[in-house]
Inverse folding.
């Protein structure tokens, strides 16, 4: 078992009021599995990622990864957010090797690892370019390479392609699928896009509105490898979409009524 979320709850205090973001949430994620989390805004999806990453503590329950309880920053995961964390004054290659530099990896090893990663994300020849010289898709590729630099076993991805246009989002989904098929890393992927979740994931987890609980877990049986450009036309895709939307629609409408 890669990650076990055991009866987790998370409370915040804001403006002297207590907010229960997640309540009694349990989830088991297998090693090498691709899990997508969907749910209405504010239901605790990102909060769960932050707790797996060790950025936030659990108010109740616990999270265990590879047999060890997560306490403090979890260095076994890589975290990719919607807004990339590239430093504008560093070139693409210097951004990619930043995690290795922090870990005092030798310059030669950094260079070798960075070259391999830029090739992996189809950015060979762009290592000397700065972020403002790259397109949005290229920046996302650099950010992904940066997360992969120290070879974490688990990738946490919080709407990483949410800001991209529809065509570029498909291209990045395709890049991610190819990378996942090569490496079989564990991926926990937050998205508001049901089609994206179905296209990428082994299982889709639907959250209720706040406080976030699990309403439905849908196993995606569409065959792999999946062609992200055509998978929506495969038999069974629409049926899965409709089941997930039926589970999600009521939660979204509840939030609009508040």
């Amino acid at each position: 078992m890669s990650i076990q979320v055991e009866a987790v709850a998370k409370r915040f205090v804001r403006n002297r009021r207590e907010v229960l973001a997640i309540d009694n949430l349990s989830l088991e994620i297998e090693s090498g599995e691709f899990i997508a989390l969907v749910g209405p805004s504010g239901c605790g999806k990102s909060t769960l990622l932050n707790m797996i990453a060790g950025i936030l503590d659990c108010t109740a329950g616990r999270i265990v990864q590879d047999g060890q309880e997560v306490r403090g920053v979890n260095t076994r995961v890589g975290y990719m957010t919607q807004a990339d964390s590239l430093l504008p004054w560093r070139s693409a290659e210097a951004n990619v090797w930043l995690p290795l530099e922090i870990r005092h990896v030798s310059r030669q090893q950094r260079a070798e690892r960075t070259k391999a990663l830029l090739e992996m994300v189809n950015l060979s020849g762009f290592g000397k370019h700065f972020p403002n010289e790259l397109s949005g898709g290229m920046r996302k590729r650099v950010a992904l390479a940066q997360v992969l630099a120290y070879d974490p076993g688990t990738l946490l991805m919080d709407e990483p392609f949410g800001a991209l246009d529809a065509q570029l989002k498909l291209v990045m989904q395709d890049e991610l699928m190819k990378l996942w098929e090569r490496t079989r890393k564990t991926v926990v992927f937050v998205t508001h896009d049901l089609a994206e979740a179905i296209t990428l994931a082994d299982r889709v987890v639907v959250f209720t509105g706040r406080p976030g609980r699990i309403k439905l877990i849908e196993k995606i049986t569409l065959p792999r490898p999946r062609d992200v450009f055509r998978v929506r036309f495969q038999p069974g895709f629409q049926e899965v979409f409709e089941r997930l939307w039926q589970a999600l629609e009521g939660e979204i409408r509840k939030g609009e009524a508040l």
